[in-house]
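Quick one before lunch.
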Amino acid sequence: MTDDPKRPVYPAPGAQLPYGRQWIDDEDIAAVVSVLKGDFITQGPTVAAFENAFCAVTGARHAVAVSSGTAALHIAYLAAGLKPGDEIITAPITFAATANAARLCGAEVKFVDIDPRTLCIDAKAIARAVTPKTRIIAPVDFAGLPCATAEIMALAKTHNLTVVTDAAHSLGATDHGKPVGALAHMTCFSFHPVKSITTGEGGLVTTDDGTLAEKLRLLRSHGIKPGREGYTIAAAATDTETAAQPAESGDAAGWYMEMTTLGFNYRITDLQCALGLSQLKKLPMFVARRTAIAERYRAAFHNHPLLTLQDLPPGTTSGWHLFTIQLRLEEMKKTRRQVYDALKAAGLGVQIHYIPVHLHPYYRSRYGHKRGDFPLAEHYYDRCISLPIFPAMTEADAQKVVDTVLSVLN
Ligand SMILES: *Cc1c(COP(=O)(O)O)cnc(C)c1O
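Model of the pyridoxal-5'-phosphate complex:
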């Protein structure tokens, strides 16, 4: 790992090293400014340009960019036909949005415990949770590691289910050479500042299915066709689907844009997509830097008697959104809280990812969940700590993390 001369310098010297942080450089700023000076600051050509670039990076046929990762999950679930009374299956170790988006559709959430080695959903346990009401399996590429997608896709085929992968952590990761984004029926990304690339807020759904892509585009913008990408209003007026049955005859000329389904304003702006395009060019460098930091950590910690690390199954590469360690509390005198506080006091902005979703008060009260329901997820949660990992970290920052962890554990 070498330190890039264009590396933005942060945090300020002496400040706490955060667990994650965006990389914004002069090229990113220039890209946003040039869109600001142009004709379209939203719904112009830059959204489509970003989507096309995303297809090129992931190998997916279609990309639909939206206002957040949560919006991406919400419309992906709706496009898959998720409705009140249906069920989705997901893992408890994720950000709450994976489950919340199903509740926003009126559907119920069934959790399946994690594989303690990969920290992703236990693919072997999913079949037992499938009921006649199940519509969607929503696995999470935890910390950036692709989940067992091939196995989950095979299971989905037998039960006629849709797989929507939450890939908020895993842009840039691969599974047997294939990039995340072209492995499931739909794949959802987030561009929050701590994620692989950022648009401020933003998200995106990839799919190879043209019918799903069409539904996603409608849901993104009020259920009205067209959006502006590739469409003119005149073209819309002659579009057979939108103009086939005008509500009032005579309305079809010029301005006619019919609403065909109930949708949202989940649009992303051209300003954000200008940043996204500029960031996407740096994705290989971002992933390489995250990987170099992760390799340094793995080399330092993999034999440590008090630590357990996430397994990387053969054939996979991680996007390294997070680097989580697990403390072997049974062998230690210190508690996780003591280790966490000591790392914070030594200047590391460590975090805990995540409170298992079934233990949030909302899910406890809705489903009566309690401690003990998903023991492997809880075992992980009780021992985990996320260490700082982001592309703008220097060699010295990464070494400071290693030294601090080793000294706190001693
Ligand atoms: C960040 C994240 C989301 C939500 O993305 P937003 O862009 O913040 O809405 C969903 N799932 C996971 C696993 C995430 O990490």
